[in-house]
């Protein structure tokens, strides 16, 4: 049965490590900022003086002090802006150029004009103008004298261009 917390310390009592002091050294303090893992044992009076004199930034330039402060704000762990760093390449590779999903009507319009998306509206307009010059009913009539005035193919190209143009207008607004 236990009757109390009796602690017996077989080691002899430490004296204060300060020169000329004969008091008991009960307080463990790091020796210096440059050597924080080596300790000295001090009495209460001398540990207070030691703490008052402590300057972890002694001998450091302003840039080094700023760097230490910045490291301390992130617990000395590596950090980087969002979207950067060692794993960012893995994530941006999949997000770089996601496939554009076009509606079926727009895909059919591209196919009718012999175009392969993705294209800019300027490229689509250039293709439309080239097709219009070639298949416009008036141009066909002049090229093939006396040809039947058939404008159904031209109407299909016009409708395809209108569909693509409306799609781009919705996409940009």
Task: Walk me through this protein's architecture.
The protein has 173 residues and is mainly alpha-helical. The chain folds into two domains: 68 residues, no CATH class; 69 residues, Helix Hairpins (Orthogonal Bundle). 47% of the residues lie in helices and 8% in strands. It is built from seven helices and two strands, in the order E-E-H-H-H-H-H-H-H. Helix 4 packs across helix 7 and helix 5 runs antiparallel to helix 7. The chain is rod-shaped, with a radius of gyration of 41 Å.
Concise synopsis of the structure shown:
This protein has seven helices and two strands, in the order E-E-H-H-H-H-H-H-H. With 173 residues, the protein is mainly α.
Task: Give the key terms.
173 residues, mainly alpha, Helix Hairpins, 2 domains, 7 helices, 2 strands
Alpha-carbon distance between the two ends: 83 Å
Level-1 CATH class name of the largest domain? Mainly Alpha
Order of strands across the widest beta sheet? 1-2
Architecture (CATH level 2) name of the largest domain: Orthogonal Bundle
Describe the main β-sheet briefly: 2 strands, antiparallel
Record the SSE blueprint.
Blueprint: E1 27-32, E2 35-42, H1 44-53, H2 62-73, H3 88-95, H4 104-112, H5 121-135, H6 137-143, H7 152-172
């Amino acid at each position: 049965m236990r009757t109390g917390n009796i602690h017996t310390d077989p080691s002899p009592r430490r004296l204060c490590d300060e020169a000329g002091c004969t008091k008991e050294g009960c307080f463990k303090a790091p020796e210096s900022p440059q050597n924080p893992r080596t300790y000295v044992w001090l009495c209460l009076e001398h540990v207070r003086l030691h703490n008052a004199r402590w300057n972890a930034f002694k001998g450091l330039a302003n840039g080094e002090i700023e760097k230490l402060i910045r490291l301390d704000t992130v617990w000395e762990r590596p950090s980087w802006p969002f979207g950067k760093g060692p794993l960012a390449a893995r994530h941006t590779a999949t997000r770089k150029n996601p496939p554009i999903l076009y509606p079926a009507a727009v895909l059919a319009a591209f196919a009718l004009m012999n175009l392969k998306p993705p294209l800019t509206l300027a490229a689509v307009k250039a293709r439309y103008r080239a097709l219009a010059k070639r298949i416009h009913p008036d141009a066909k009539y002049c090229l093939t004298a006396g040809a039947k005035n058939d404008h159904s193919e031209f109407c299909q190209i016009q409708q395809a261009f209108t569909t693509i143009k409306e799609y781009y207008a919705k996409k940009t607004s």
